[in-house]
Amino acid sequence: MSRSQEGQSMMNQPRTIEGELVVPEGARFALIVSRFNHFVVDRLVEGALDAITRHGGKIENIQIVRVPGAWEVPVVAQRVAESKNFDAIVALGAVIRGATPHFEYVASEVTKGIANISIATGVPIMLGVLTTDSIEQAIERAGTKSGNYGWDAALGAIEMVSLARALTKAGL
Ligand code: INI
Questions:
Q1: What is the largest distance, in Å, between two alpha-carbon atoms of the chain?
Q2: Does residue 102 have an active-site annotation?
Q3: Confidence grade of residue 85 (pLDDT, cut at 50, 70, 90)
């Protein structure tokens, strides 16, 4: 492709606004962490902290709030989001089918609750709550062979905070 063709094809691209995987200056994060299945959830917390600090976040700008189980995440997420003290929230927990007959209720309420609160408050709340059929599947997603869901959720939070700043800059 010639230089002028390159220039032409660049000009034909739509203008794009997107977040970067760099924690913006002064960004504050809250992690809402469920104690239930803490053996798994502790690994998600480690992953989330690692992701935020490796991408430029400061540990003093991260607040952890612990709740008994995933069921309690939405009510606390709502309170934390409404405080407007944080640029993003990362919800971390593990709902494991094998461990509960009311798996469906807990899993569906926590996921629905987080989505609704995020939309209602405008604060990005990342879903870092594992919903798995077995403990083995949960462990696989908590820092072993299928990565770390806490890390992934925190990375999403960083992108959303960066995107929010870019949108504001663009007047949106
Ligand atoms: N909470 C979880 O976070 N994960 C689970 O797998 C789970 N199980 O298995 O029941 C669970 N239950 C507790 C629930 O979240 C509430 O804390 C409890 O019902 C009290 O309201």
A1: 64
A2: yes
A3: very high
- pLDDT tens by residue, 68-77: 999 999 999 9
Residue with CA nearest ligand 1 atom 19: 71
Centroid of ligand 1 to alpha carbon of 161 (angstroms): 29
Look at the chain and report how many structural domains it folds into. 1
Q: Is 57 part of any domain?
A: yes
**0.70 surpassed by pTM:** yes
Domain harbouring 140, CATH code? 3.40.50.960
CA distance 20 to 162: 6
Using most ligand atoms within 8 A of CB, pick from 106, 141, 149 the residue to mutate for ligand 1.
Answer: 106
Residue ranges around ligand 1 (CB below 6 Å): 34, 36-37, 68-72, 93-96, 99-100, 106
Write the DSSP assignment of 20-84 as a string of letters.
-SSPPTT--EEEEEE-TTHHHHHHHHHHHHHHHHHTT--GGGEEEEEESSGGGHHHHHHHHHHTT
Query: Is 19 inside a domain boundary?
Result: no
Q: Ligand 1 center to residue 53 CA distance, Å?
A: 29
